[in-house]
Specification:
With about 325 residues, the chain is an alpha/beta fold. About 50% of the residues lie in helices and about 15% in strands. It contains 12 helices and 10 strands. Strand 9, helix 11 and strand 10 form a beta-alpha-beta unit. The longest helix is centred in the N-terminal third of the chain and has 44 residues. The chain is globular.
Length: about 325
């Protein structure tokens, strides 16, 4: 009897110890899992609220002055840590212009860009169009010709899987006249682009297109889902002291923060312009934390394109400095 009692007691003790050990292991595992989840959440929360793309204009000196092949754009952007591509039409001249933008030349352009993007795992986003006529010019015939010259770029963007082409709204210098012309030009072009599922986006790019309130009013009047804006942090000079010499400064500059805020409601892309940096890596003329707060407050979570235009740093160095600034500034945004 006594032996049986002792044996039973020992068995109960062993069972108790076993159950306690299993429970403790589960608790430890649960606690560890909770810590890992928390750690993961912290990592996610420190990521920028946007994705990073590279505007090809950032390497325009390499292409125009150093002879770098523009079709290496995807390779370079990948190497520098970007995932999206924003092409610039003029950087493929004289190849395209000499061929008068023929169907064959445009098809070759599309094929080469697509092959490089696929090879390097990059996403085609935008083609920025220059030199194809003034969409806000007062002469209706000239405006129509400009609209139709953009058609081939809409087609190219569709074939490349881009979401938009960026256009310039050059034309009249008279606000009411310019506004009327801009509405007409954009409506014509966006109507065609809609058949190709392509957006027409307007960048503040000098002249009256750098008046944020005026461009926002044009967007409201056009009122098409595929017509929007591309706010650029640094392109708000409405009138220069010398049209031919940018170094002589701006005679009439629109408030950049107000301008971005006015353009963000219709934004389908955002351009992060930089020229120079201080010793702390901040842009010398643009408060990036303030700009990114405006962008985030607008609910934007798409790509922000790096567009370095400085002369002090080399293009690669300036691109990487801009990228670093964007990431660091985003950590200070609420």
């Amino acid at each position: 009897m006594i032996k049986n009692s002792i044996v039973n007691t020992r068995i109960k003790l062993l069972v108790f110890i076993l159950i306690t050990t299993i429970y403790s292991c589960k608790e430890v595992k649960k606690e560890t899992s909770e810590k890992e989840t928390t750690k993961e959440e912290v990592v996610v929360s420190t990521n920028p609220f946007f994705k990073l793309s590279l505007a090809q204009w950032s390497i325009h000196t390499m292409i125009k002055e150093e002879g770098v092949d523009p079709y290496t754009f995807a390779e370079k952007a990948k190497k520098w840590g970007f995932s999206g591509l924003e092409y610039v039409s003029q950087l493929y001249n004289p190849e395209l212009s000499k061929a008068n933008y023929s169907k064959e030349a445009m098809a070759s352009f599309v094929e080469k860009c697509n092959a490089e993007a696929k090879k390097h795992g990059m996403q085609n986003l935008i083609i920025m169009i220059d030199g194809q006529g003034k969409l806000a010019v007062s002469d209706a015939k000239e405006r129509k010709i400009a609209v139709e010259k953009h058609y081939k770029w809409v087609d190219a963007a569709a074939a490349m899987g881009c979401h938009s082409i960026r256009v310039n709204l050059a034309g009249s210098d008279i606000p009411e006249e310019w506004k009327k012309n801009a509405v007409d030009g954009l409506t014509q072009l966006a109507t065609y682009a809609k058949t190709k599922s392509i957006n027409i986006i307007v960048e503040n790019h000098g002249g009256l297109s750098s008046n944020g309130a005026l461009v926002a009013e044009v967007m409201e009047l056009v009122n098409m889902d595929n017509c929007g804006t591309l706010p650029d942090f640094g392109n708000f000079c409405i009138k220069r002291n010398d049209k031919k010499d940018r170094s002589k400064g701006c005679a009439n500059e629109y408030d950049k923060y107000q301008g971005v805020k006015e353009l963000m409601p219709r934004a389908k892309a955002v351009s992060a312009k930089t020229h120079d940096f201080d010793v702390h890596g901040n842009e010398t003329e643009i408060d990036y934390v303030k700009m990114l707060q405006i962008v985030k407050d607008a609910g934007y979570t798409g790509f922000i394109g790096v567009e370095y235009e400085g002369k002090i740093l080399g293009e690669e160095e300036g691109i990487l400095a801009t990228k670093k600034l964007l990431v660091n500034a985003s950590k200070k945004v609420k």
